[in-house]
Design brief:
Layout: E1 7-22, E2 25-27, E3 30-32, E4 41-45, E5 48-54, E6 60-66, H1 68-76, H2 81-88, H3 99-108, E7 112-120, E8 123-124, E9 128-129, H4 133-136, H5 145-164, H6 170-207, H7 213-228, H8 237-243, H9 248-286, H10 289-302
Antiparallel strand pairs: 1-6, 1-7, 2-3, 4-5, 5-6, 8-9
């Protein structure tokens, strides 16, 4: 920072993590997975989260995420660990991880912080450029840290090839390389900020939003549109990021647009149904008792109820 005018932001989020290990079960004398290995298993609970990821040896690597204050509460009363798991993550302890193992792992495995780093520029003149976590360390909730670093390399070489391909003399090469690095910073910064923010928001989705009926309804509709009507250009944010090559900043814009449209459609449908229901109730209340009952029975007959 003494030589380059670098803007730098470092943030520790109010969440720590602790790793747990779920050993395989023994089936017919061979190790086997205790739960399906075909999914990322998530136990969300009131802003807390426990996840399990399968490993090649049929075990699961698990991680507990929660605030520092919650960890401190358990540190003060370690005897409450089993009750805590039963309340927030039912089915984990003692079903998948024994009480003894859970206590041992919680006590001996470190409770580590999560950091988010943003900075700009990523280069200094024509001689230095930083990539990956050195430029944009992010929380792990989108699983894109390494992918973003590798993509940094690809994007950097795209710019270097574009600006320095035809240079021959040293002076011209240095000037053009400086231009390439400057353009890399300008374009890549948008995407680095976007995936950094998306990773932070995804923690809230994984630990909290997945318990919301409205969120689940929106995701259900989005996934069906993505699967059965791809010609509409509709795709989930996860599929765009994990299985596509779109820029993170463009994915963020597309997701905001889709979310606005989806919420508007759901709101319109809910409003229409609510208005129709209110109108039916109002008609029923205004009708004479005998007529109201007749209308009600006629309604039941029309809808197929007996």
């Amino acid at each position: 920072m003494k030589f380059a005018r670098m803007n730098y932001q470092q943030e520790y989020i109010d969440t720590l993590w602790c790793e747990f290990h779920m050993t395989p079960k023994i089936s017919s004398g061979e190790p086997a997975f205790k739960i399906s290995p075909n999914y990322l298993h998530i136990w969300p609970s009131e802003g807390l989260m426990f996840i399990a990821i399968p490993s090649a040896d049929k075990s699961f690597t698990c991680t507990l995420f929660m605030s520092a204050s919650k960890f401190q509460e358990l540190d003060d009363k370690p005897q409450d660990l089993t009750a805590f798991f039963k309340k927030h993550f039912p089915g984990v302890v003692p079903d998948l991880i024994s009480e003894t193992e859970a206590q041992h792992q919680y006590r001996n495995n470190p409770h580590l912080p999560l950091i988010s780093i943003k900075c700009k520029p990523y280069h200094y003149k024509s001689s230095v450029v930083i990539l990956g976590d050195a430029a944009h360390a992010m929380v792990p909730f989108y699983g894109q840290g390494m992918n973003a670093g590798l993509e940094d390399v690809r994007v950097l070489y795209d710019h270097l090839d574009r600006y320095t391909k035809d240079s021959s003399d040293t002076e011209s090469m240095e000037r053009k390389r400086g231009k390439a690095l400057s353009e890399y910073t300008r374009s890549r910064h948008l995407d680095a900020i976007a995936i950094n923010d998306l990773a932070l928001r995804n923690y809230h989705e994984m630990s909290h939003d997945v318990t919301s009926s409205m969120y689940l309804l929106r995701k259900f509709v989005e996934e069906r549109l993505d699967a059965y009507l791809p010609s509409l250009g509709w795709a989930t944010q996860y599929s765009r990021i994990s299985f596509g090559n779109e820029r993170y900043s463009e994915v963020e814009k597309a997701e905001k647009k889709q979310r606005t449209i989806m919420l508007a459609i759901i709101g319109l449908i809910a409003g229409t149904l609510g208005s129709w229901t209110a109108w039916r109730i109002l008609r029923w209340k205004r009708a004479p008792p005998s007529r109201a009952l007749a209308t009600w029975f006629a309604s039941l007959a029309t809808t197929g109820y007996r």
